[in-house]
């Protein structure tokens, strides 16, 4: 397994633990944490520190609130706890992979509720995209690049976060493998590409459409929302 070299910043992990990241970005961070033992440990430390700080700050207030609970609430809580086991709602098993062509891609736990994207893929040459139905200003998508495929050189109107789920891709700054978490903005200009015989599946969160910058690819700007 390739070593994960690119991670969310400590500040972003703290925002995630505090619940202040957007729904789409929260998914990206959570999926990376599922794949990255280093960030799992870092997040455990951050959450423990937050829990300790919250406990020291809120314990007196919580004790006062608990002592003031009305009898009706206590009775309702007791009734819920006493519910027979056979009346509990059964949940359906969740799929762990998505199919694309003849490939099956195992997804991290945070993304497994989005495995049903069959028929939702939009294709453009060796690229394919399936957007996810999230109530968020940022757009979240699965992006698939076939082997020996390339996204034309572009920059970004906003921030783009990309998590490599399977395979790898390269750009002008290096190579990125499964688990790598990459942040790009308007200061970055790159052209992601895959090697012959090696495809790549990513999860991307994009604040604004890409802006293509090189040669004939600039003609793609009117349809740049394909990649958002």
Automatic annotation (TrEMBL):
<dbReference type="InterPro" id="IPR041916">
    <property type="entry name" value="Anti_sigma_zinc_sf"/>
</dbReference>
<dbReference type="Pfam" id="PF12973">
    <property type="entry name" value="Cupin_7"/>
</dbReference>
<feature type="domain" description="ChrR-like cupin">
    <location>
        <begin position="139"/>
        <end position="204"/>
    </location>
</feature>
<dbReference type="InterPro" id="IPR025979">
    <property type="entry name" value="ChrR-like_cupin_dom"/>
</dbReference>
<dbReference type="Pfam" id="PF13490">
    <property type="entry name" value="zf-HC2"/>
</dbReference>
<feature type="domain" description="Putative zinc-finger">
    <location>
        <begin position="10"/>
        <end position="40"/>
    </location>
</feature>
<protein>
    <submittedName>
        <fullName>ChrR family anti-sigma-E factor</fullName>
    </submittedName>
</protein>
<dbReference type="InterPro" id="IPR014710">
    <property type="entry name" value="RmlC-like_jellyroll"/>
</dbReference>
<dbReference type="InterPro" id="IPR027383">
    <property type="entry name" value="Znf_put"/>
</dbReference>
<dbReference type="InterPro" id="IPR011051">
    <property type="entry name" value="RmlC_Cupin_sf"/>
</dbReference>
<dbReference type="InterPro" id="IPR012807">
    <property type="entry name" value="Anti-sigma_ChrR"/>
</dbReference>
């Amino acid at each position: 397994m390739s070593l994960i070299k690119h991670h969310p910043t400590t500040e972003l992990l703290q925002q995630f633990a505090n619940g202040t990241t957007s729904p789409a970005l929260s998914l990206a961070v959570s999926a990376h944490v599922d794949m990255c033992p280093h960030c799992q440990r870092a997040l455990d430390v951050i959450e423990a520190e937050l829990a300790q700080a919250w406990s020291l700050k809120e314990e007196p207030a919580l004790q006062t609130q608990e002592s003031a609970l009305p009898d009706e609430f206590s009775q309702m809580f007791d009734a819920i706890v006493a519910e027979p086991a056979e009346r509990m709602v059964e949940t359906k098993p969740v799929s762990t992979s998505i199919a694309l062509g003849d490939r099956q891609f195992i997804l991290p736990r945070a993304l497994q509720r989005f495995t049903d994207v069959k028929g939702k893929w939009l294709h453009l040459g060796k690229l394919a995209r399936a957007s996810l139905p999230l109530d968020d200003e940022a757009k979240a998508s699965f992006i698939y690049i076939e082997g020996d495929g390339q996204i034309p050189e572009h920059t970004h109107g906003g921030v783009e976060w990309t998590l490599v789920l399977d395979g790898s891709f390269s750009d002008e700054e290096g190579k990125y493998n499964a688990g790598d978490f990459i942040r790009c903005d308007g200061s970055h200009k790159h052209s992601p590409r895959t090697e012959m015989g090696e495809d790549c599946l990513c999860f991307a969160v994009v604040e604004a459409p890409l802006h293509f910058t090189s040669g004939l690819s600039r003609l793609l700007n009117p349809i740049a929302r394909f990649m958002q």
